[in-house]
Amino acid sequence: MRIPDGCTLAVGGFNGFGTPDALLAALRERFLKDGAPRNLTLMKSVSVGDRGERGVNRIALEGLLRRVITSHVGLEPAVAKLVEENKILAYMLPLGTVTDLYRAAASHRPGVLTHVGLETFVDPRLEGGKANDLTVREGEDLVSILNIDGEDWLFHRAVPVDVCLLRGTYADRRGNIVLSKEAMYGEQLEAAAAAHNHGGTVIVQVEQVVDEDFDPRIVKLHHTLVDFVVTAPPELHRQSYSYDEYRPEVAGECRVPIETRAAMPLNERKLCGRRAALELKADSLVNLGIGVPEAVAAVAAEEGFSDRITLSIESGVLGGVPLSGLGLGGTTNPEAIYKMPDTLCLYDGGVLDLAVLGMAEMDSEGNVNVSKFGGRVTGPGGFINISQNTPVMLFTGSFTAGGLKTACEGGQLRILQEGRAQKLVPHVEQITFSGAYARKKGQRVLYITERAVFRLAPEGIELIEIAPGMDLERDILAHMGFRPIISPNLREMDKRIFADEKMGLKL
Angle at Cα 30 formed by Cα 29 and Cα 35, nearest 5°? Predict the structure, then answer.
């Protein structure tokens, strides 16, 4: 048996891309038939699923899994259910830390030393990355604090990998793997090395085994790291979960004309995107998160300056037009495709000029939560790597949640129906971004909603702008769980944000 009981199983993939579905389907079938293997530790960088039954959702079975170590389960409802019901141990760590853990295991280092995650829920002085009560009670500590020359660091103990399930495009006769039809280059090398260098097994799913030698410049996984190659049927080897056909322009094989996008409706998403776009600078490297931040890209296209900024995704893709939803991680007409672990290392070093990320909850200290709500676990993904190391951070989201309806009339904002839930609360449920840590690092941080803009000030959260048509007490303060500092220079948001026509923005 290639996957024994109690082993650590690494699985490659990024959201809807690069999933070894045929191997996961076979593992599920074996467990349902034989009741084995049992009590596996599942290790993966990020969500590998489609919010349905594909990806690692296939192996989210009681008895098969005992523990998961990852950065995200937001697209894996079956895995998240096991976590939330305390059926398995669960650790949520920053995406870059997980990829670094593969490198640590591969090089037989004791672990990963990093500043990423300090003063967030990953910090052992808070939660230590433990995602549920079972892990708090029974799970070992994977994260500790080391003080070096008076400075605190997080130390993550390495996790040896026993078996690795990956995906490539083609294999040659010797087992060399190329990724020529993949939308991104993930952690294949790191995960394979982690397993191989510990005497483990590496199994790679491909579309086809070809009887030819590859150009050595395109080989991404050498046969010395590959134990078995499995040819997958087409239905279990789609380029992405977000579309059916193969798209060469996403794999960098060709470039296609970009269709003119229909203008976004003038809703709260676009209002946030427009206000955030005012912070963009020409020739900057920018990361946009999923959800509301995607509106920034739409605004940039509408205003005609998409080519003046470069968008970067933590999957490793640079330039082009990022896909959204399950397509997050891929890009139409990419300029470059880096490896994901390399890109996250660059993020940790501060390569980004600006980032726009989501804001599910924000509190009086400037903390932001995007990783856990009412006991429902999603995890941070690459959020912490990005948010802690980018000099200018814009967090965007609607002011309230649950049924909010707005309208713009005559250059003013109207609230047609208020959301049922407050998002600006006294204390966030989980700290994914630390306001206190950001102050220490000197980051410039704005919190942008459709009706108000706040900044992270030295003495607290300061309200600096409100939308035209909004009443400060009725529409802003009455729907917050804390009272912010009111700027003595409080001003109206740019009226162009609330007009139907283009803003006429220039970088």
Answer: 115
Residue 310: how many CB atoms within 10 A of its CB?
Answer: 16
Q: Which two tokens stand for residue 146?
A: 């080391």
* Residue 477: domain span: 268-498
8 Å CB contact between 53 and 47: no
Handedness of CA 268, 274, 275, 276 (dihedral sign): positive
- The predicted pLDDT at position 501 comes to 93
Per DSSP (E only), the strands in 246-401 are 285-288, 310-312, 317-318, 321-322, 331-332, 336-337, 354-358, 361-363, 368-369, 372-373, 376-377, 392-396, 400-401
Of 464, 467, 470, nearest to 494 by C-alpha is: 467
| Amino acid at the residue 428 | V
| Residues 170 and 207: beta-carbon distance below 8 Å | yes
Region 404-422: mean pLDDT is 95
Cβ atoms 484, 446 nearer than 8 A: no
482: exposed, middle or buried (Cβ count in 10 Å: 0-12, 13-18, 19+): middle
Would you say 196 and 226 are in contact if contact means Cβ atoms under 8 Å apart?
Answer: no
Cβ atoms of 151 and 162 closer than 8 Å? no
Contacts of 223 (CB under 8 A, 6+ apart): 172, 174, 175, 176, 177
Residue matched to tokens 């599942």: 42
pLDDT for res 260: 63
Lowest mean pLDDT among 83-87, 143-147, 327-331, 397-401: 327-331
CATH number (domain holding residue 327): 3.40.1080.10
80 close to 377: Cβ distance less than 8 angstroms = yes
Q: What is the dihedral of CA 144, 147, 152, 157, to 10 degrees?
A: -30
> Is residue 37 reached through a cis peptide bond, with omega within 30 degrees of 0 on the bond before it?
yes
What distance in Å separates the CA atoms of residue 62 and residue 65, rounded to the nearest whole number?
6
- The span from the CA of 441 to the CA of 455, in Å, is 15
Nearest C-alpha neighbor of 50 from the set 85, 2, 99, 13: 13
**Shared domain check, 120 and 65:** yes
Residues 16-60 pLDDT 10s: 999 999 999 999 999 999 999 999 999 999 999 999 999 999 999
Taken in order 329, 330, 333, 334, the sign of the CA dihedral is positive
Same domain, 217 and 360: no
DSSP three-state, residue 337: strand
Number of domains in the chain: 2
Q: Is the pTM of this model over 0.90?
A: yes
Q: Find where tokens 């969500």 sit.
A: 47
B/e letters for 103-116, b = 16+ CB within 10 Å, e = fewer, are bbbbeeeebbebeb
Do 43 and 122 fall into the same domain? yes
**Active site (catalytic) residues:** 314
- Of the CA atoms within 13 Å of residue 126, those in its CB half-sphere come to 16
